[in-house]
Each structure stands twice: as C-alpha cells, then as structure tokens.
Specification:
- This protein is an alpha/beta fold.
- It is built from 14 helices and 22 strands.
- Strands 1, 2, 3, 4, 5, 6 and 17 form a seven-stranded mixed beta sheet that branches. The chain has a five-stranded parallel beta sheet with strand order 8-15-9-10-11. A five-stranded antiparallel beta sheet has the order 18-19-22-21-20, sandwiched between helices.
- Strand 18 and strand 19 form a beta hairpin.
- Helix 3 packs parallel to helix 6.
- Bound molecules: flavin-adenine dinucleotide (FAD) and 1,4-dihydronicotinamide adenine dinucleotide.
- The site of flavin-adenine dinucleotide has 37 residues, from helix 1, strand 2, helix 2, helix 3 and helix 9.
- Flavin-adenine dinucleotide (FAD) binds next to helix 1, strand 2, helix 2, helix 3 and helix 9.
C-alpha cells in the first residue's frame, strides 16, 4: 500500500503516455494494468499487430504484382502463416517491452491487476488499497456487440480473433465497412481469402470525404474485396465450423444469406468501464457509455479524470495520447490544449488514406465558401515509378482567406503526408503558404504542394 500524486488506471496509449508526462512533471505516479503486458488495445490487439500483418501482406502483394516488371524475377514468396503470426507477436512483444522499460526509466510503479476506485482518493488493486491525490481513468474500449451475432473468436470473430486465426480462411464476411473491417479485410484479401464486406450504410467509411470514399471503394474492389452496401445484418449461425450471415437489404427489405469460413464483426467499439466502481461514486456516464468530462478531462467527481477511448471523441491512439499529456499538464498546473479540429485519421490500407479537418460536404452544409485544390498522384514522378499513381491529394481552403480547412489524401504514404498539412493547419496557414514552400524532388510530398498550388494559380504537373 502506497501513496501517489497520480494513479492511472489503464496502460494503453492514453494511460502510459499520461504516466510518463506526470513523471516528467515531478508527480509521483503509478499505473494500473490488468493485462499481462502494457500498451493497451493499441499495442496488444490493435494498431501494432494489425499494422504488422498489413506490412507483411503488402510486401507479398508487391512481390506478386510488381517485382517482375521491375526485373525482379523468380517465384513469388509463399505464405508461412505461422511465421507471419510469429513476426506479428515479436512486433507486439518488442513494443510492449519498450513501454515496460519506459515505465521503469521514468520511475513509474506498475500496479499489476485490475483496479477499482472504492472511494475518492483510493485505488484498489487485488487486496491492496493505494492513496492517490488524482486518479485518471484510461480504461479504453472493447468491441461493440451486434444483436443476433454471437462471437466465439474462432468462426465469428472480433478484430482480436481476426489477428490470430488458426489458418487463413478461404472466405470471410466482414460486417462493417469501417476502419477495422477494411484494414483487416485487406490483409486477408491479399492472402487469397474471398472477402465480402457487408455495410449498413450506402457508402464505406462513413463520415469521410466523398471523393475519397469513391476512390477508396474502387481501389479496394480492384484488390478483390466485394461490397454489399445498405444491408442490415440480422444475425449469424455457426454450423460445422462455417458461418451463415443473414442480412436484409434496406432498399427493399429482401432477406439474403452468405456463407463463410470466418465472419469478422467490425461494427465499432464501446468504452470499457466495467468493474471500476464509477456508478457507485456518482461519476456521470453518457447514454453511449462514455465517461463525461469537461475540457480539462475532469469528471463531475473531484479528483477523478478520464481520457482516451473511455470518453467522447474519435477512438484513436494519438487522440488518447494527446489527452494523456494534457491531463497530466493540467494536474501539474499548466494550461494545455488539445486541438480536436486537427486530429488526423489514417487508414493503413494500400494505398493509405489520410485525412484531417473538415470534409467538402460538411463545409458546404455550413454554407462556407470554399475552394478545392486537387492533384492526382499520376502527375507525381516518384509515385508513377513506384506503381503508386492511383489516388490524389485534395486540399480544401477558405475561398476568401485561403486558410486551409481540411485535407484528404488517398495514395502512397498518405498517413505520413497528412502531417505536413496538420502542421500548416495548426499554424493557421493558407494554401499559398504550402504552395510557396520548396518541396524536394522527386518525393510524394510534391503532390501535397501541387494540390496547394491548385488552390491558387494552378498545379504545374496536372
Ligand atoms: P486502450 O488502449 O484500450 O487501453 C486501456 C487499457 O486499460 C487496457 O490495456 C485495459 O486492459 C486496461 N484496463 C481497463 N480497465 C482496467 C482496470 N479496471 N484495471 C486495470 N486495467 C484496466 N488507433 C489508431 O490511432 N491507429 C491505428 O492504427 C489503430 N488501429 C487499431 C486496430 C484495431 C484492430 C483496433 C481494435 C483498434 C485500433 N486503433 C487504432 C484504436 C486504438 O487502439 C485505441 O484508440 C487506443 O488504444 C485507445 O487508447 P486508450 O489508452 O484509451 O485505451
Ligand atoms: P467504425 O466505426 O470505423 O466502423 C463501423 C462500421 O460498421 C460503420 O461503417 C457502420 O456503419 C457499420 N455498421 C454498424 N452496424 C452495422 C450493422 N448492423 N451491419 C452492417 N454494418 C454496420 O468501427 P470499427 O471499424 O469497428 O473500428 C472501431 C474503432 O477503432 C474506430 O473508431 C477506429 O477509429 C478505431 N480504429 C482505428 C484505426 C486506424 O486509425 N487506422 C484502425 C482500426 C480501428
């Protein structure tokens, strides 16, 4: 039993980053984690393992499709699924081990076990009760369930099961054309699985810019993914290790079925707050299960804060990290600020999608006068050389002030390119500021500059 300035419950990107910032600011800090390893959803069953499988299968795709044309002859590599999973596990272990090292380096105590808050200023882990002046809840999220769909993590799986399937399925139905469905759907499509994505709405990746949505769907279809849109899944049934998915088309209410070796349920995630004792303390929770906080991540109960997937906002690791730093700085008496208008979103498919700020439709709905600069990667020398000419950069700026309001990229390294625009937006830059910045040739980032030029007098290589 010990006393701390801050105890953080949950060691995902929100919690562990917050712990490090607390320690850097001189606060005596402990972190509680119930898993055997640190890093939360992101490092153990989310961002990192999914990116390892995306990387490995992207290499396979490259070898199968582009090597011969570059004069690299020979048999395309065959897939050793067991080894691919070992590579994924090694990647996880390196990263979770790295977080453990960072905790030790920053003298943060890891209180191992599931924590609860029996009273304000107290955190219980196992039989021990620890004192804390401030408690930060960073307990993250879990997959949302779907009525009629029973997950066994073998035949009907969430993302967690999909990251460790016993074998590569011949067929897969993905329920939900959101980020998880499309990333993991891409992984299996590249491995030869017949992937059908069933989506409730009439478009994939709801909320994204319409030009991206159109181009993205086309690209994924070229890669073999099939889409059934406007379809409400009624339920699944498992028989002889095969699943049947029943869905109704919303346009005419007709009922259909699909059979598959594996069904991936990817219809969103919900906050995970079970067992913390928040209800008994009177901490306010929204209808969607999110812990309610103010701008400084304070709940309605003094001394208890919350961040990350457990509160409102996009369920993204970097959003959780930013909140983790901000809550620590606030506790230490500083005046931090997270700019929710400039949180990038990236989908790590091939090609990648990177977005920041507002979409064309949202701005038009607001009645805002805008101009759009678009540039295709077909006009980018580097992209063409690397078989990456599919896609474009779209920058949206205010028609009068030229201030950048949003950017949407589908193409090579979109997830990295987007950050140039994030920085520009943080500085309140105009499209002309980007357009007048010299960009090295030949780089993908020239496409960003060209899109900025297209907001003004015109792109050069269009
Ligand atoms: P979490 O990472 O969920 O961590 C919470 C931790 O708290 C968990 O380890 C949990 O065990 C622990 N915990 C909970 N309750 C208790 C308790 N009572 N006592 C002790 N410990 C407790 N986001 C991105 O930005 N980029 C991506 O590429 C990306 N890919 C993803 C891929 C997949 C398949 C999934 C599922 C998610 C992905 N995400 C991605 C989302 C990202 O993982 C989350 O947004 C992020 O992990 C949220 O961080 P967090 O710290 O709020 O919570
Ligand atoms: P999501 O919210 O991105 O997508 C869910 C999709 O399922 C939506 O398109 C929705 O319309 C659809 N849907 C909902 N109910 C349905 C039904 N009954 N039938 C058919 N379709 C239905 O959620 P997802 O993909 O599960 O991801 C969860 C979270 O994890 C996201 O918030 C995302 O931010 C995060 N994540 C982020 C990644 C990244 O940043 N690259 C990667 C993976 C996850």
């Amino acid at each position: 039993m010990s006393s701390y300035d801050v105890i953080i419950i949950g060691a995902g990107p929100g919690g562990y980053v917050s712990a490090i910032r607390c320690a850097q600011l001189g606060l005596k800090t402990a972190i509680v984690e119930g898993r055997d390893t640190l890093g939360g959803t992101c490092l153990n069953v989310g961002c990192i393992p999914s990116k390892a499988l995306l990387h490995a299968t992207e290499m396979l795709h490259e070898a199968e499709h582009n090597f011969a044309e570059m004069g690299l002859k020979g048999k395309a590599p065959s897939v050793d699924w067991k080894q691919m999973l070992t590579y994924k596990e090694n990647t996880i272990n390196q990263n979770t081990g790295g977080i453990e090292f960072l905790m030790k380096k920053n003298k943060i105590d890891w209180l191992k076990g599931w924590g609860s808050i029996p009273a304000v200023g107290k955190v219980k882990v196992g039989d021990d009760i620890h004192d804390a002046k401030h408690i930060i809840v960073a307990s993250g999220s879990e997959p949302a369930s779907l009525p009629g769909v029973e997950v066994d993590e073998k035949t009907v799986v969430t993302s967690t099961g999909a990251l460790e399937l016993g074998k590569i399925p011949k067929s897969m139905v993905v329920i939900g054309a959101g980020v998880i469905g499309l990333e993991l759907g891409s992984v299996y499509a590249r491995l030869g699985t017949e992937v059908t994505v069933v989506e409730f709405l009439d478009a994939i990746t709801p909320g994204m810019d319409k030009d991206i949505v159109r181009a993205f769907k086309r690209t994924l279809e070229k890669q073999g993914l099939k889409f059934i849109l406007g379809a409400a899944v009624q339920g699944t049934q498992i028989k002889n290790n095969k699943a049947t998915v029943t869905y109704k088309l919303r346009k005419d209410d007709s009922e259909h079925t699909l059979q598959a070796d594996t069904v991936l349920v990817a219809t969103g995630r919900k906050p995970f707050t079970r067992g913390l004792g928040l209800e008994d303390l009177g901490v306010e929770i929204s209808d969607r299960g999110q812990i309610k906080t103010d701008d400084h991540y304070r709940t309605n109960v003094a001394g208890i804060y919350a961040i990350g997937d457990a509160i409102d906002g996009p369920m993204l690791a970097h959003k959780a990290e930013d909140e983790g730093m901000a809550v620590a700085e606030g506790i230490a008496g500083q005046h931090p600020h997270v700019n929710y208008g400039v949180i990038p979103g990236v989908i790590y498919t091939h090609p990648e999608v990177g977005t920041v700020g507002q979409t064309e439709d949202a701005l038009k709905k607001e009645g805002r006068k805008i101009k759009i600069g678009k540039f295709s990667f077909m006009g980018n020398a580097r992209a063409k050389a690397n078989f990456m000419g599919d896609g474009f950069v779209k920058i949206i700026a205010d028609a009068e002030t030229d201030r950048i309001l949003g950017a949407h990229i589908i193409g090579p390294m979109a997830g990295d390119l987007i950050h140039e625009i994030c920085v520009a937006m943080e500085f309140g830059a105009a499209a002309e500021d980007l357009a007048r910045t010299c960009h090295a040739h030949p780089t993908y980032s020239e496409a960003v500059r060209e899109a900025a030029l297209a907001c003004g007098n015109g792109a050069i290589h269009a």
